[in-house]
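Project standup — Tuesday

K.O.: blocked on the structure for the chain from last sprint. Re-posting the sequence here as requested.
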Amino acid sequence: MFESPTCHYCEQWHADLGPIYPKTAESALAPLRRVNLHQDWPADLRGIRSVSFTPTFVLVESGQEVGRITGYAGDEFFWFQLSELLKKLPPAEDGAAQREGGS
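H.V.: unblocked you, prediction finished:
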């Protein structure tokens, strides 16, 4: 999750979903990783294409961007967008449920 300390929509996502997201099946497939858009990005995310708006949720698999959700328009729409995004992941090898984190 690319976010900004001044982003109202980021704050709303954290209020609506922050406490429950880590407990979901979706979190097992796409653990949340928070990155401040205005600071240097971690080295392993430098290959991700530009992010201009917050929040932006980027799903990463094997160092490559699978897809992203830009913005937050409420919990129901977020869950729908996330379920569609997770369908783009390749099948987990050896039945492993845990994957690389998204951002």
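K.O.: great, moving the ticket to review. The mean pLDDT is 90. The beta strands are 2-3, 35-36, 56-61, 64-70.
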